[in-house]
């Protein structure tokens, strides 16, 4: 039986060496090691996601005690040192002796026995000296990048876009564990009834004012193991995504297109809002993700959801027209770093071409929309080039569309431009952007 630290090591190594997504790496290892109990699973998650959250700060501290740049370390050794440093600096319940000794043991059995003494020496110095930060002005982007383990280019982007205070708040929130939010399948159960169903399984949940059918689960929970989940009584979905679906305002009996649908959460919420009537066409460019949408709809008992393998940037006249179209486009994901911490290690060049793709999808969406229909554009990123600038260009080049005002009672981050930008420190949601448009001045 593998230890929790060994499993955490394997997950982090996959992320570091192979570029794997952390959540997929962890889920895969949990399935391969079903004997892990809830306590060990929680420890693995804390160690994996915590290490990734603090990676820049961890590497800075490691670099103080190494004779070579950390980037030149072999992946196995680098991963072990990172894990040990995280335990020493941020896991108060782990004794220093255990963190050091277990790291040395990991080195001996994971192609790093040659460096066992190095692991011991470096981690003992980390333990003795505690957390270190560079000597620099506290508003210096390079200092902030290390302190918050957020690359300088992201810090600077947020400062320029949203102001210094909001940028720091975003960086701080990116280090916190995200809330676990679900949406009641209102074709089967109300949110109030679901609270009691979950309580019968030992899960505490509470409602939120931001989305009437949403519940926030308290404490760690293996959602897919719950009977309520297996019975199709809910699906996991952050409040921001539920607000996005509300912006689309789907009505019973209508036809709705979700152009970039996988894994399907928005399509499910739309279908449930329509009370399982009408038609929800859910599209994705990858067959495996189309199957994911299909299986989710089947579990929830939503027979008005139809799935298609399709490129959202290319028009297909065979799909017909829709009353409402949702474009939740591919994006840089800077609003969900706390859910997928490896996103922070993208380079600026990785996202340079995204606005053009996003704009093509948005323009293509107009060809599916009936006169008087509503079009919603959304991302899970906090980057004006992918958000407001795409929408401003769209309005300038499509005079037959007008902007729809969204949720005026929701607080804004400051001098916002009329669209809706959701921020973790203001709305307690994922970072998210939503804009709604009406074609030919019709119904709003």
Account of the 3D structure:
With 444 residues, the protein is an alpha/beta fold. The chain is built from 18 helices and twelve strands. Helix 16 links the parallel strand 8 (322-328) and strand 9. Helix 1 (4-18) packs across helix 2 (22-32) and helix 3 packs across helix 5. The relative contact order is 0.09.
Short structural summary:
The chain is built from 18 helices and twelve strands. It has helices spanning 4-18, 22-32, 38-53, 55-63, 75-90, 96-109, 116-129, 141-147, 152-162, 164-173, 191-200, 227-230, 239-248, 265-273, 287-300, 354-366, 388-397, 424-427, and strands at residues 180-184, 204-208, 211-218, 234-236, 255-258, 279-284, 305-309, 322-328, 369-379, 401-404, 420-422, 432-439. The strands form two sheets. Strands 5, 6, 7, 8, 9, 10, 11 and 12 form an eight-stranded mixed sheet that branches. A four-stranded antiparallel sheet has the order 2-3-1-4, with helices on both faces.
